[in-house]
Design a protein that fits this description.
Length: 470
């Protein structure tokens, strides 16, 4: 365990972490008070000096060794994700294997992305100069992560930050901190000096205290809009990476392979019980196939097995808390009050919420306009691609979008006109490769994750220029 966490946990209270499915406690972590933020910053300052002095070879070796250790113990990590986040075994396994990949990509980046030669002599007046730029660490990065991908989203911040030579203060979600702590333990077992990453477990007040320090050079945040706005207000002059929410549209045109589209959209909508920032929330279906798509999609939804995520045949586990499931029911009930027609689902039992499909949702209600982050999907009939594009783009923020069609021109038009950080053709919105640039368009989104892109955000160029005297 990280030194700071160990000493803090001896002196203060604990946050209990419970299994979302049955409420049984699966662990407890130190509830570090905001007054201790100064001490954490002090540790990180030393960590920044240490990490900066590690060679690229050493940073890469730590990340690669950690990847191998996580791969070796993949079942332990899988069980932990199932227990603290309520993901099904299949979903948790996928997250662990993606984490291994993220760490390996980070090791590659440490070796590869050291800077470039600058062609000074390509410009008049600079013919007698030559030089280069290097990629230097920023210093201290505060990384704040959400509950829904408790391992791989942490790796997406720690991997590139360490590759770039930074110290990190990691504040994981207080709902799912155990996978994050285990990953940091594994980094240390792989040879990372203990002060390079400080795990600061605690609530919002601790996060707010940490982001406000002048010594912090960057905040890498993944979470909700309201939290992102609060952080931006508390932080002052610092670099931000903000990965916030989505409300992903998928367009289904009449010429597509309908069976394939239904299958992809079912996975896109209900993976991780819909608690997925690129999960499909709105499906815009051309009228020629609307009834057929609806029939198949509702039948597929009803066939999903909802329940204990630890059982291998479960498709949809619980939501993160009973309160989240109750809030989802309220949002859906409100949409029904405003005219939406319920096609299936909307039953809450504790943290379980049955996959829910609606149609005729009023465009003014929050289910259409805002991220629901739940196993809820809206079907909407459209006549033309132009209608679909305008509806798809209507929310004020967006991460990913998708389109199913066999018409190349329609696909390319959608790729051009959809206002999103990623457009998936013949796939649901829920596709991501850890090496690709990942982030949103429009309100709130700042910067990109995806290892190379996060590494570039987390380093700064330094120019060295030599004037040749003779
Ligand atoms: P959240 O915003 O409630 O919490 C995220 C983190 O911020 C937690 O660690 C929390 O303790 C911390 N926090 C809360 N208040 C804070 C404050 N005032 N100052 C500093 N830190 C504070 O988010 P959540 O409910 O854990 O996660 C769900 C959200 O995350 C959804 O909106 C989802 O779309 C988003 N998300 C986005 C991506 C992406 O890559 N774009 C990925 C996953 C999740």
């Amino acid at each position: 365990m990280n030194d700071f966490l160990l000493s803090a946990s001896q002196s203060i209270g604990f946050i209990s972490v419970s299994n979302p499915f049955d409420g049984v406690e699966v662990g407890a972590v130190a509830n570090i008070p905001p007054e201790d933020a100064q001490m954490i910053i002090q540790t990180a300052k030393e960590g920044a000096r240490v990490c900066r002095s590690l060679s690229r070879y050493e940073r890469a070796r730590v990340l690669e060794t950690c990847a191998l250790l996580v791969e070796r113990d993949k079942d332990t990590f899988t069980d932990l994700i199932v227990a603290e986040a309520g993901k099904t075994v299949k979903q948790a396994k996928k997250e662990v294997s993606r984490c291994v990949n993220t760490l390996k990509l980070s090791a590659d980046e440490a070796r590869r992305n050291g800077g470039e030669v600058i062609p000074f002599d390509a410009y008049a007046g600079s013919e007698n100069r030559q030089g280069w730029f290097t990629r230097e660490p920023l210093g201290i990065i505060v990384a704040i992560t959400p509950y829904n991908d408790p391992l791989n989203l942490v790796a997406h911040k720690l991997g590139p930050a360490i590759a770039g030579g930074n110290a990190v203060i990691l504040k994981p979600s207080d709902l799912t901190p155990l996978s994050a702590i285990k990953l940091v333990d594994y980094l240390m077992a792989a040879g990372m000096p203990s002060n390079v990453v400080s795990v600061a477990t605690g609530g919002a007040a601790l996060g707010e205290a940490l982001v406000s320090f002048r010594d912090v050079r960057m905040i890498s945040f993944t979470g909700g809009f309201a939290t992102g706005e609060k952080i931006a207000k508390s932080a002052g002059l610092k670099k931000f990476a903000m990965d916030l929410g989505g409300n992903a549209p998928v367009i289904v045109l009449g010429d597509c392979d309908i069976e394939d589209a239904v299958e992809s959209c079912l996975s896109g909508a209900f993976w991780a019980a819909g608690q997925n920032c690129i999960g499909t929330q709105r499906i815009l279906i051309q009228s020629s196939i609307y009834e057929e798509f609806k029939k198949r999609f509702v039948a597929g939804t009803k066939a999903l097995k909802v329940g204990n995520p630890a059982l291998l045949d479960t498709d949809v586990g619980p939501m993160i808390t009973v309160q989240s499931a109750a809030r989802t029911k309220e949002v859906v009930d409100a949409a029904i009050d405003q005219g939406a027609k319920l096609l299936c689902g909307n039953i809450q039992e504790g943290a379980l919420y049955t996959p829910t499909v609606l149609e005729d949702v009023n465009f003014e209600c929050s289910l259409w306009r805002q991220e629901v982050f739940s196993p809820v999907v809206v079907l909407q009939q459209i006549e033309t691609l132009d209608d679909a594009l305008s509806l798809a783009n209507s929310p004020e923020y967006s991460l990913h979008a998708g389109i199913f069609t066999n018409d190349l021109h329609a696909a390319l038009k959608a790729a051009d006109k959809l206002e999103a950080g990623g457009v998936m053709i013949n796939d649901s919105s829920d596709y991501r490769l850890d090496a690709m640039p990942f982030g949103g368009f429009k309100y709130g989104s700042l910067g990109r994750e995806g290892v190379r892109f996060a590494y570039e955000e987390m380093t700064q160029p330094k120019v060295v220029c030599i004037r040749k005297i003779n």
